[in-house]
Design a protein that fits this description.
Two copies of one chain form a homodimer. The first copy, chain A, is of the alpha+beta class. Chain A has three helices and seven strands. The longest helix of chain A has 9 residues, at 94-102. Chain A binds chain B through residues 17-18, 20-24, 28-34, 61, 63-67, 69, 71-72, 74, 77, 79, 81, 83, 130, and chain B through 17-18, 20-24, 28-34, 61, 63-67, 69, 71-72, 74, 77, 79, 81, 83, 130.
Chain lengths: 130, 130
């Protein structure tokens, strides 16, 4: 177990790939959703809103697991397990816009739900690779 | 909420795509792993072994969530939420071989861990789409 990303898999976190984010629901079942993300070398940040199921899930159980798979080679993947460390308000949608641009929309505008936008900051505790 | 797969997303379950399977760990955190699967129109089947973490997770908490994303268009995805319904022994690895062939290896052989191989059968209770 390590929190270091293997150097040969760092591209999976640097490329604008969708991640599969697992959270634990209020009834102790599990959900997995596709998510934009940004990795800064230590933490992973997601854009989300404070009105959705996943946000409520994380208020009760902060556990998060992010799986990123290479769309060109499904045998290349990395799973980051950890927990919600912080929720940062993003009322102008600035982080959403930054992620939108990262994911290829040069003209990304703030979303209609900007007033509810938050940044979910994930601490990484375990890295699993293939 | 429905258990019907939208007809325009059925291809995601029919094509040999890797799914992202979420399970709840013994410490109530979450893990997400890439998995081969086969969907028969009602249930989803996975090959696994009885010696691994995911198997122990499911013995305690049978909740499962399978996210399948189109590698050519990440905005097309379907999430199947449900639970482990049955574990079927596969001591010759026959189901593993069938899945291997489904995923493109015409000469798939049984794996070395065939004696421990099981088929995880998932009941689908909720289908979420984009």
């Amino acid at each position: 177990m390590s929190t270091t990303i293997p150097s040969d898999l760092v591209d999976l976190l640097e490329r604008p790939l969708f991640g599969s984010l697992g959270t634990v629901r209020l009834d102790d079942t599990v959900q997995v959703n596709p998510m934009w993300f940004e990795w800064d070398g230590e933490q992973v940040q997601f854009t989300h809103t404070s009105t959705r199921v996943k946000y409520r899930n994380l208020q009760r159980n902060p556990a998060m697991s992010l799986l990123v798979t290479d769309p060109d080679d499904a045998m290349r993947y990395v799973e980051l397990r950890g927990a919600l460390a912080e929720v940062v308000s993003d009322p102008t949608g600035a982080f959403y816009v930054r992620l939108g641009k990262r994911y290829g929309n040069a003209d990304q505008q703030p979303p209609p739900d900007s007033p509810d936008r938050v940044i979910l900051v994930m601490d990484v505790r375990t890295v699993t690779r293939h």
